[in-house]
Amino acid sequence: MTDAFVSAIKSFAKAEGIDVVPLKKGQRKDEIAQKYLSRFRTEEGVLFIGRAQEKTPVVRTERRRNPRTGQSYPWLVRSTANINHYYFYCVDRDFGPFFLKLGSYFPYTGKVCLNGHEYLKRQLAREGIAFEALDNGLLSCADPQRAQRICDELTPEKIDALVRKWLRRLPHPFTAEDRAANYLYDISVLQAEFSLTQVLDRPVQGRVFFEQVIRDNLDLGRPDRVQLIFKRRINKKTPGRFRTRVITDGVIPTLYVEYKSTRVKQYHKERRALRTETTINNTNDFAIGKRLKNLPALREVGFQANRRLLDVQRISHDCWLGEDVFGEIHRPVTVGEQRASALRFGDPRVLALYSVLVLFRLLPRGFTNRDLRQQVAVILGREHTVGQMTYDLRRLRLHGLIERLPKTRRYRVTRLGFRTALFLTRAYSRLFRPAFSALQPDIEPPAPIPFRRALDRLDTTVEQAWEAQQTAA
Q: Are 86 and 232 part of one and the same domain?
């Protein structure tokens, strides 16, 4: 059977003009496939056939002897061996690039590897829907709702049909008589990966967000946190290592969370998107069978794990005063036909307004122009005119920090206004002002300041590094 199968591969490659490429250990097969794919011009076909020797489970025969008669007989046993595997790298009309690997020794096991993103891109192109491709994903799409429906329509039946189609076209270890006798391949799930790619409209802020997420979630691998992500009960008998790994490849950090044989990976993809992907290497981790028909159940587990991870991270990281709110307050704003200037953080007049808003939050009847003006004047130490106060009230109102009581000339502090004023006044008085006093190199503080000591150490380290570079040059 092996000789016939290998001869059939050689004959097929010669007849179709397909290269048979020896694959060395450690060689990246995808890079070879990309070179052939760049020269491929037809709708579907075989790119090349790769041949690699790999260790795999096999079934061997061994000679045994009957203890009563002394006659010998063959016996089938499980074993392992280094055998030739043939990689058929193909392009399908509907699924795009994929490969089918077949072993050349009994039981002639096979492996199919396909990418759902490639399937999606092919379907969008066939329907004429414009999209911008991201490596292993989409950067943008003219009809994202339709794109999601196409993803949902990738069923086990379609995958099975793909495999049957190419097994009929490619050289096969089982003859037509074997297949007629029902020696057929069945498909099971060896590994399934489910990804969620969230494209960011502010990539730089996305990188900052992700690095902060890593710092805040280093304990995600603990059993109690893993339970939240996978919704599985974990006890002392649960196998596997529960840990969080942060791996830096170049300058791109990657977060890993593990549960048994399953892994959740999160990273900043191509500096444009936040990628969260769950890879299930053993379906039994979730009491789900390996047959291809169980793919919908695995899909539900994978995508729920992605969403739960993001939920856990959002709860731990998402501060109330976000980047958008901060920008809306500290930039000029236009509401209807009215325009108000920015409330600049650190401006003494703005800080005085914030300080008074914290005091006026609890006034049941609100406050007037005069009430606010008097308090602001006390904090600033100078007179604040009616015109200046009217200008400030307009700024506070259009930024949403105060609101006017109906049919009156009184105002009250909004929830946003109170929280903003409280946060910014405390941040200025407790963080920024002490920190900037420690930044002055020529002014010695009356008492040791940890922040100042840290700055001094940093300054010394930078100076030493600079001197070392100068000496080397």
A: no
